[in-house]
Design goal:
The longest helix is centred in the first third of the chain and has 21 residues. Strands 1, 2, 8, 9, 10, 11, 17 and 18 form an eight-stranded mixed β-sheet that branches. Strands 5-6-4-13-14-15-12-16 form an eight-stranded mixed β-sheet, with helices on both faces. A two-stranded antiparallel ribbon has the order 3-7. The mean pLDDT is 95. Helices cover 34% and strands 22% of the residues. With 466 residues, the chain is of the alpha/beta class. Among the domains are: 169 residues, FAD/NAD(P)-binding domain (3-Layer(bba) Sandwich); 53 residues, no CATH class; 31 residues, no CATH class. It binds flavin-adenine dinucleotide. The site of flavin-adenine dinucleotide has 41 residues, from helix 3, strand 3, strand 12 and strand 16. The site of flavin-adenine dinucleotide (FAD) has 41 residues, from helix 3, strand 3, strand 12 and strand 16.
């Protein structure tokens, strides 16, 4: 796509998540003012924090639960993601099989149940979050990716998923892109959701269950106090018996968590609604989510009102984990994505983008969250979903509650929960190491060859992803 065409297509894109504009305004919640008391305090009001509050109330309606959100509820990663919702708790099937082969049947069962239960809870409360369990397609853009898709298809079938390989003609007949050389159509395992409606739905359920929510209430310090904890905010303090920390990619209240989480910026574009003619020109009748198998992969999907959401590719890490809104590299990432939309669907020439935004992904070296307790077992955390937390945040929230209860459950028995990822080294080593790893991943995308450095990381169970 010529530079002028990219500039024109992006010229009117609002720097705001589409999902947050596509939903009606909701009530806001007052900041903490003065001293409050609660049984359970939840720090962070994204999907993880909201699920922790909801599940705590579902388990014991008499328990007093308060959520403290630094900004607005569910407007960080939870309000600005791609809306792919997966059963997987392991960042995909292949990764789970490589990391925890003996526990994979259990991990799959718990992941499936988690998504079934999310759907059931939304139904029970009459929440329509446009949850569509249509699976996904992984499209090959290079000949070297076709073997990998065939292996992935066999793996999916062996684990009870419904999957089929499509050749070039079948893939292009399904979704009309001249770039597709084949595809893996997986019909099970998840689908898509409207993250804004899901967020509002969870806030609504939490309010109905009697959860106290406070926005614009950043917790600046968490300390032990008598038999529980005290959380300081700019205008008050909350005393609670226990706390769940659900702060995702933000600077954690527990210093030790900094070793495990690297905030990575991920970028997303949304187009204007397609006309009926444009919509017909791309096929895509099953409206499944699409992705490609590169290390720098794209993810794209249709919105309920017929736009294309297109994200991913650049996973930007900056020294010290700083994520600046005005980073000049950000515009380059949007331009790259815009040109990839055009090469994927050249028939949509002239289509403009209505929204562009970025968000921080809480990456761990194992691509799956870490769990644990602190402050004498009074606080538990679930952070590090590494770009696949829309569904698994509920599993993470329940696991954090299990850890506070100190009673073994099916979740706390998993090695995914009991063992931590390899920590990232501190700066100034962290940044160059991540850049070297990214360069190796980019080289693999170019050549199709996984070099010795990446193979060594594989053996150590370490990697870098968004
Ligand atoms: C661009 C992008 C695309 C993504 N796409 C997908 C996808 O398609 N599918 C998928 O499964 N996952 C995706 N993800 C990941 C997914 O959005 C997250 O894993 C999930 O929303 C995690 O929710 P969370 O509650 O842990 O974090 P968040 O939603 O980030 O919530 C954390 C909250 O904690 C608050 N907070 C932080 N510190 C404090 C403090 N000290 N006091 C009070 N509050 C605090 C923050 O303000 C924030 O609201 C994507 C993420 C991004 C950024």
């Amino acid at each position: 796509m010529a530079g002028d065409a990219v500039s024109a297509a992006l010229a009117d894109a609002e720097p705001t998540p589409f999902w947050l504009q596509d939903i009606p305004a909701r009530q806001s919640f007052d900041p903490v003012d003065g001293t409050l008391h609660s049984d359970l305090l939840v720090v962070g009001g994204g999907f993880t924090g909201l699920w922790a509050a909801i599940e705590a109330k579902r388990a014991d309606p008499s328990r007093e639960v308060a959520v403290l959100e630094a900004d607005r509820l569910a407007e960080a990663a939870s309000g600005r993601n791609g809306g792919f919702i997966a059963e997987s708790l392991t960042h995909g099937l292949a990764h789970g099989v490589a990391m925890w082969p003996d526990q994979m049947p259990e991990l799959l069962r718990q992941g499936r149940e988690n998504l079934d239960e999310i759907a059931a809870i939304l139904d029970e409360h009459g929440i329509d979050a446009h949850l569509q369990r249509r699976g996904k397609s992984v499209v090959a853009l290079k000949p070297a990716q076709l073997d990998g898709l065939a292996r992935s298809c066999a793996l999916h079938l062996a684990h009870g998923e419904q999957a089929e390989l499509l050749d070039r003609d079948q893939a292009q007949a399904d979704v009309h892109s001249p770039t597709y050389l084949g595809a893996l159509r997986v019909r099970t395992g998840g689908g898509t959701v409207h993250p804004g409606l899901l967020a509002h739905g969870l806030i609504d359920i939490a309010a109905r269950l009697g959860v106290r929510m406070h926005e614009h209430s950043p917790v600046t310090r968490l300390r032990r106090a008598s038999a529980g904890l005290a959380a300081a905010t700019p205008a008050g303090e909350v005393h609670a018996r226990q706390a769940v920390l659900a702060t995702n990619a933000f600077p954690p209240l527990l210093r030790r968590l900094r070793s495990w989480i690297v905030p990575v910026a991920d970028h997303v574009l949304v187009t204007e609604p397609l006309s009926a003619e444009q919509r017909a020109s791309i096929g895509w009748q099953q409206e499944q989510g699409l992705t490609d198998p590169g290390n720098r992969f794209h993810y794209y999907r249709l919105t309920p009102d017929g736009r294309i959401l297109f994200g991913g590719y650049d996973a930007a890490y900056h020294v010290g984990g700083r994520i600046h809104a005005d980073d000049p590299a950000r515009m380059r990432s949007y331009r790259t994505l815009a040109s990839h939309v055009q090469s994927t669907f050249p028939q949509l020439e002239g289509l403009r983008f209505s929204h562009r935004w970025f968000g921080a992904i809480d990456t761990t070296s194992r691509f799956t969250p870490l769990f644990g307790t602190a402050l004498g077992g009074r606080a538990a955390y679930a952070v590090g979903f590494t770009g696949l937390g829309v569904g698994s945040s509920r599993f993470g929230a329940r696991t954090a509650l299990d850890l506070l209860d100190q009673a073994p459950t099916e979740r706390t028995g998993l090695r995914l929960v009991r063992r931590r990822p390899v920590p990232f080294p501190p700066e100034p080593i962290r940044y160059p190491l991540i850049r070297v790893t990214q360069a190796a991943l980019e080289a693999e995308d170019r050549t199709g060859i996984r070099g010795p450095y990446l193979r060594l990381l594989d053996r150590l169970g370490v990697g870098f992803d968004s």
